Amino acid sequence: MAFTPEMLDELTAQCKTPSDIEALHAQLLQRMINRSLAAEMDAHLGYGKGDKPPATTSNRRNGKTEKTIKGSFGELDIESPRDRDGSFEPQLVKKRQTRLAGMEDKILSLYAKGMTTRDIEEALVDLYGVHISHTVISQVTDAVLDEARAWQNRPLEAIYPIVWIDGLRVKAHHGKLVSNRSAHVVLAVNLRGEKEVLGLWMAENEGAKFWTSVMTELRHRGVQDIFIACMDGLKELPDAVNAIFPKTLTQLCIVHLVRASLRYVAAKDTKAVVAALKRIYQSVNAEEAQRELSAFEDEWGQRYGAVVRMWRNNWGNVIPFFQFPPEIRKVVYTTNAIESLNMSMRKLTRNRRVFPNDEAAFKALYLAVLHASKRWRSIHHWKPALQTFLIMFGEERLPVSALA
């Protein structure tokens, strides 16, 4: 609908400040909602207000219920029509609804970024002038739990060429005590080159038994084969993966190894050390990588002997990487997906120092995953990598029908 300049001038004649414009918007929205609800009642009864009722119905209008709704506009007082037999179910603003759609999304977005319910309560007052108690905010975030559980148990695809297994520490209350919990995530790339988090698992510790149960769960949810599993340095993890997926190649995640190395490196040396480590994992083959590691030791060993020992102690789990052709290496050590996910999850845990319980931590991490995944794009260089997977593993493990 187009407004003439004269109509707009008349409408905004009394508006002198931005707050006046906001007040005008709220009044217009209030009138629109009331008119829309009245139109819903007309459609429900089959005749308009003031018209003669049809003989086929005995139902009539029965006044209105006044209620206050909240949203990004502030608070509005609206009138919800009633009918005599109580069969009218408004859709724009449902019965017992106190917030317009959209406020829930804002609450969940703030929660996914690591804000507590009380932080969100204060932010909504500052940003929108809306007072929503932290109890109601908790109810909104709790409503996502069923969605999160369904996501955790959803069926998965049969083949995932690459998975990354990662984790971080969170603190959660258990009764009157606060304990460290491990939050584990499995990030995968499917056959279409799309990144996908397969699940989140909370545990007090991680060992062979725990990881075997996770891999068994993935199997039950439909996963039949994983080509390459990239993981941190936990010793029991490769055996746990191979117990359920015996053909999977296990590879120490280069991203994890570089990140762990930098814990020992002074800020002024970070750039140079990263460049030297890159020469190791970008080597043509294992022999060249070994020479680059020796060169790194000659240059940095005296200052950062712990980094050298870390690479040498894990060398057996690093060198499988070099059997892959460049097309697959580019995908295996790509950092965008896992770094984006780690950043969102670690930011959350920094802001939320202690969770009320494991369920609250799981809920928040699930929302963080959803928030991070909105920015993901398909893996670069995926088609050449997929062709190479087909050559390496053959149609027995990568049927042409799976690529359709």
How would you summarize this macromolecular structure in one to three sentences?
With 404 residues, the protein is α/β, with parallel strands linked by helices. Helix content is 50%, strand content 17%.
Protein described:
The relative contact order is 0.10. A hairpin with a 2-residue loop joins strand 3 and strand 4. The chain is elongated, with a radius of gyration of 29 Å. The protein has 17 helices and seven strands. It is 50% helix and 17% strand. It has two domains: 61 residues, no CATH class; 255 residues, no CATH class. The strands form two sheets. Strands 5-4-3-6-7 form a five-stranded mixed beta sheet, with helices on both faces. A two-stranded antiparallel ribbon has the order 1-2. The protein has 404 residues and is of the alpha/beta class. Helix 10 runs antiparallel to helix 11, helix 11 packs antiparallel against helix 12 and helix 15 packs across helix 16. The chain starts with a helix and ends in a 7-residue tail after the last helix.
Number of strands: 7
Distance between the termini: 46 Å
* Outline type: elongated
Total domain count = 2
Kindly provide the radius of gyration, computed on alpha-carbon positions and rounded to a whole number of angstroms. 29 Å
State the assembly state of the protein chains.
Answer: single chain
The tally of helices reads 17
Q: What are the segments in which pLDDT stays under 50 over at least 5 consecutive residues?
A: none
